[in-house]
Design a protein that fits this description.
This protein is an alpha/beta fold. It has two domains: 155 residues, Rossmann fold (3-Layer(aba) Sandwich), CATH 3.40.50.1820; 121 residues, no CATH class. It is built from seven helices and ten strands. A ten-stranded mixed sheet has the order 1-2-4-3-5-6-7-10-9-8, sandwiched between helices. Helix 1 crosses helix 4. The two termini are 17 Å apart.
Length: 280
Amino acid sequence: MGLEMSRWLKSAAFAAGIVVAVLQGGAVVAATTVESLTVAGESRSYRLHIPEGARDPMALVISFHGLHGNAAQIEKSSGFSALADQEKFIVVYPDGIDKKWRFAGRTDADVKFTLAIIEAVAAKAPVDRHRIYADGMSNGAMMSWRLACDAPDVFAAFGFVSGAYLEVCNSPPRAPVIMFHGTEDKILAYDGRGRFMAVRDFAVRWAAGPGCNPGEKGEVIYRNGDATGERWRCQTDHEVDLYTLQGKGHSWPGSKMRASSKDMDATAAMWAFFKAHPQL
């Protein structure tokens, strides 16, 4: 993130008109609330889930919905809020303008919105700045990819579910990534389409580092029914875990969505990956 973006981030809380919440007795009260911000002249909203009774600095997970979806939908399908209550971390579900994320092109409005959310949440609850993560489904995975390229120093790791990717970021560092994709995805093809890279090729190239080019096949770390997990790791900060769901479609593994795998839980696997990768 450049100097200009860093300066903008420091002033975002004031520009957005954020009010610091008073926490009774120093503890945070549990709830999923709908919050609002005005960023770059746009009125924006997001759902915020803070686990009950949390006091210590907590990890923050930002989860982006897919195209034509919304914050409530991704909260329900991912099940992250229930897991957050058990594991004591904060989850944010942003809403995109017109139910989509502007992940490509020159506009960085959604990147600025995300960074403003971080400051707003940090004003309400104790956030561990070394444990901020982003994930998403479909168009939301593509938004997470944009953040991985534009703000690698803000986020510790990323999760991509059924997404599509234009390129591998040229500038290191590249944060650790966990990916999930069905081989029969008819919306965003596993083997790529048009400008989008093949999922496996993206994983291999993301993991590559100076003097290290991993092979097409990674180390098998998980195998259960239709789900196979592979890992590529040249350097700690370039690790990629890819879960391929054989015969499955455009969905969040472990959810009640149609065409989703029942042989793995993407939410649980993602959180375990995030926990293992704090920002150093």
